[in-house]
Amino acid sequence: MKSSGTAAEYWKQNLKLMAICLVIWLVVSYGLGIWFAKPLNHLSIGGYPLGFWFAQQGSIYTFVALIFFYVWRMNKLDRQYDVHED
Amino acid sequence: MNLTTLTWIVVAATFVLYIGIAIWSRATATGEFYVAGRGVHPVLNGMATAADWMSAASFISMAGLIAFMGYDASVYLMGWTGGYVLLALLLAPYLRKFGKFTVPEFIGERYYSQTARIVAVICLIVASITYVIGQMKGIGVAFSRFMEVPYDIGLYVGMAIVFVYAVLGGMKGITYTQIAQYVVLIFAYTVPAIFISLTLTGNPLPQLGLGSTLSDGSGVHMLTKLNEVVTDLGFAQYTAQKGTSWNMTLLTLSLMIGTAGLPHVIVRFFTVPKVRDARASAGWALVFIAILYTTAPAVGGMAFYNLIKTVQPGEISSPEGALKYDQRPQWFKNWEQTGLLKFDDKNGDGRIEYRKAADQNELKVDRDIMVLANPEIAKLPNWVIALVAAGGIAAALSTAAGLLMAISSAISHDLLKGVFTPHITETQELTAARVAMAGAIIVAGFLGLHPPGFAAQVVALAFGLAASSLFPALMMGIFNKRINNTAAVWGMLVGLGTTLIYIFVYKGWLFIPGTNNLPNTPDNWLFGIQPESFGAVGALLNFITAYVVSKVTAPPPDHIQHLVEDIRVPRGAGAATH
């Protein structure tokens, strides 16, 4: 860490990224899987009613993708702000 | 070779594997005992976390829940996986950077308070013991059903196995055994699922099979057919929502927050070398969990379809379509012996009728048999059935070991070393940890032999505790520098207190039957919130209380504010310290 200014900036960027990921997490599971599942069920994906698919398959795939996206962005951020390990 | 002999061979082979790993990886220092020397590769740690987290409930019960609840069981699928997003983003990397051995240790140091540490130890022990009872029961049931051994003997064998690898190897032994157990359990879960998906839909991937058309030449989609069949029997559509969105939302949220707050899961992220490994390892854990969790809906749906087709071989809902009782298949007879499957010929016509209406329904099916009976229902070869037995035992053993580890380190590290006898040497602490582990196994075994009647209900309590007290305390410790010791302790007590009271009001004080103040039915629930869902509300109350108290009390000392700043950046995450 070079100065406290950079550390604060790093934390701010991290919080922004976190917020984006959590919004996607919320929309896919609660939004598409629960709140809007009924109307979405009129559409279908590969034989699954869409809302049902999000609740039992899609949300889980999204969670996995979200974590790896976050890992990739954070590793970049760590280097950018020179706070990475070794 | 008969099924019992085959099952014995398969299960014995897995036990030899676990013991072999334990001898190879025994722990010699506290760092190895508590956090496996922090040298576990993130992918391997992901696998161990998956086995640690997926218990007998995930392996045996979840597909059964899905089968009988359909869409509404999605709360478990999303709740128990979505928590990993919270873990990866909000907790795992920072707790790893903090670099200590246990969850109560973080709470104690961050809030510079022994009271906070002890509250955390109590939550940890209650949550973990609850779970252990379920795992022990799982081991006993698997033995008695598949290996024709009395329940208690099965339990003793399970205890002995856990004793060898947990006491000897500590976290290091547990980690590598859990990796082996993951391989056994995932193989055991997916092989029957693939066979069943192939038979019903011609698609080898169960995840796609559930959405495919049936291979009976009708061209009808699996789920469409399932909806048709269940509505003919008087049930609601399989893919339709039965409960309220409000309750589903709160239950999902409680399970997510609870998952992210469970100490035996969090502590697995202490075992990787670096902060970035802690993030990645949460992702790998979810990959390995997702393999089972995306297969479970297919297992549930297809097993349920097979079950209905078996008892209603003719036209569904017509009286002549029902199976004659004396023509029932062998697996039906096997499960009748366990009492988990019951036939009651209400209209005396000698046919098995399965209906929604209670006065017409003649078949009682315990949800837990769906996974275990699945291979038999689908007429799979005996070795697959033997494998499922080994998988169920692996799921139960791996989770039991993780929980016992969390309990014993809370006792030896947080209570003995941290509070009562701070001056003991590392060797003495290591001995204490092993004694605590042995003690925990004996207590768990005793509770498994004499399971308290409330075991199932207490699972809600375990999640409630983790969600309402531990998760908020950990999260605020990282994200809000201003939260001080008073705020954290009050927050935990309010979160914990309200959740306990809410559960007890509906389920009985300390779960003693008859002491509940209100009947546990939807019209009595406060704002329609079921007791199992209250953890999320308790967490919210915890956050609010801590925030308000911190506003009217002095900020934490400078060194604590520096500590928080320090855990927010990855650089400098060192080796194990204590």
What do you see in this structure?
The complex is a heterodimer of chains A (86) and B (578). Chain A is 78% helix and 5% strand. Chain A has helices spanning 4-35, 37-40, 50-80; strands at 44-45, 48-49. The model of chain A has no long low-confidence stretch (mean pLDDT 92). Helix content of chain B is 70%, strand content 2%. Chain B has 21 helices and 4 strands. Chain B is globular, with a radius of gyration of 24 Å. Classes of the chains: A mainly alpha (86), B mainly alpha (578). At the A-B interface, helix 1, strand 2 and helix 3 of A face helix 5, helix 10, helix 11 and helix 13 of B.
Total helices of chain A: the number is 3
Helix/strand order of chain B, N-terminal first: HHHHHHHHHHHHHEHEEEHHHHHHH
Unreliable sequence segments of chain A: none
Instruction: Please report the total strand number of chain B as a whole number.
Output: 4
Tell me the total number of β-strands of chain A.
Answer: 2
Write a concise keyword list for the protein shown above:
heterodimer; A: 86 residues; mainly alpha; two-stranded antiparallel ribbon; 3 helices; B: 578 residues; 21 helices; 4 strands; 70% helix
Question: Can I get a quick summary?
Answer:
Chain A is mainly α. Chain A has helices at 4-35, 37-40, 50-80, and strands at residues 44-45, 48-49. In chain A, strand 1 and strand 2 (48-49) form a beta hairpin.
